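Deliverable D5.2: sample structural annotation.
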Amino acid sequence: QAIAAGEQGGNLEVVLRQMADYTEKAVVTQKQIKGALTYPLIMVIVAIAVVAILVTQVFPTFAGLYSYFEVDLPLATRILIAISEWSNQYGLYLLLGIVIAVAAVYVYSRTPAGRYRWDIMMLRLPVVGRIVHLGELSRSCRTMSMLVRIGLPLPEVLAMTIQSSNNKFVVENLTGVQQALIRGEGLSQPMAKRELFLPLMTQMVRVGEETGNLENTLTTVAESFEFEAADKTKRAIGLIQPIVTIIIGLVIGFIVLAMMSAMYSIYGQVSI
């Protein structure tokens, strides 16, 4: 439809250039969001793997040595021995339960109701949710700005914007705005009634409607949201890395402390 409108208006070259710019910015935004989601996940998986290897493979060797001397062990060592024994006995069942739970969540998220709830959750997650929210709104603003600029009527603009979104909650809200628009309520008024659309977006859309410069105000909003999303992504990654590193260090430090304190305890009691 966008290309057809460009052909009819005699500005196909401009339309194609705008579509290329839009696609490029959309890809950059999507990569930023994926980066914010992927990095913490990888760090958590690595941390779990390291701790699991230490508890189930390395520590049992030392536990056998401790039991050989039959001495009183420090509290940290006894806790770690209990965790290690429990992991070796029930670890496989725990892993199986996690796999089943993940598979169940995945299957549920493929259903319409599950996908809807998943998309809402993605928008409400701490730190990451704001980035996803800004990404969805900036993408919608870019789409609407491009389509308004090439001369499509607003109902068709919203219809194509709805088609371009993969978030069911965003689609639901945009559909509500489209229906209100068709009823003659305008664009900014129904947006202001929905929590999804941030105040900056609704205010700038209102200004665009009043001045007849909607495409430029939407572009301004998209650029503002993209800048904020990029800034928050950098901050999130910068914040998550030291937090995860500290947690891994504390866990590994506890394991090392339990092992070393046990060795000193054995040395002291055997020497006596």
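Annotation notes: The chain is about 90% helix and 0% strand. The two ends are 88 Å apart (CA to CA).
The annotation will be released with the project's public dataset once the embargo ends.
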